[in-house]
Specification:
Low-confidence stretches: 17-25
Shape: globular
Strand order of the largest sheet: 1-3-4-5-6-7-8-9
Strand content: over 45%
Mean pLDDT: 86
Number of helices: 2
Largest sheet: 8 strands, antiparallel, barrel
CATH architecture: Beta Barrel
Length: 148
């Protein structure tokens, strides 16, 4: 009985020590779902230098599902609208979108660039995709809120 009690006590001590030594990290959230653009940030290389609100009537929505992305944009002064479709992958701090096709303007842009890589800050109900310059400095971001 003393051996059993000692073993249980020893296990409790090891379990408590493991919990105390474990680093506290924020959980890795899923980007799957539907997101709406809320604002833009400008950066001074690292820190946010300005917040830019959307223009009245401007809407941009992104949908991520099973490795696929589709986005659409409505700008009141542009009757054509914009959209794109492709695939995506994320890691803990990076979002890579590969656009396969889209509206006429997007198809012209795809002649020069199809892969878009962003620094990713992903939380449960928000995310920011941050554009970096050639030297890895932050330049701007699009900031989204989960709507589904």
């Amino acid at each position: 009985m003393k051996k059993l009690l000692g073993l249980v006590l020893l296990m409790l001590v090891f379990t408590s020590a493991t919990k105390l030594a474990s680093p506290k990290t924020e959980p890795f959230h899923s980007i799957e779902g539907t997101w709406e653009l809320e604002s833009f940030y400008s950066y001074d290389g690292e820190d946010i230098s300005d917040t830019i609100a959307k223009a009245d009537g401007y809407r941009q929505v992104k949908m991520y599902s099973k490795g696929k992305i589709m986005w659409t944009r409505y700008v009141p002064d542009d009757p054509k609208g914009r959209f794109g479709y492709g695939s995506y992958r994320i890691s803990e701090n990076e979002l890579v979108e590969t656009i396969e096709y889209g509206d006429n303007d997007m198809m012209k842009a795809l002649d020069t660039m199809r892969n878009f890589t962003f620094e990713l800050i992903l939380k449960a109900d928000t995310f920011s995709q941050i554009t970096l310059d050639e030297e890895g400095n932050r330049t701007s971001s699009e900031n989204y809120t989960r709507i589904d």
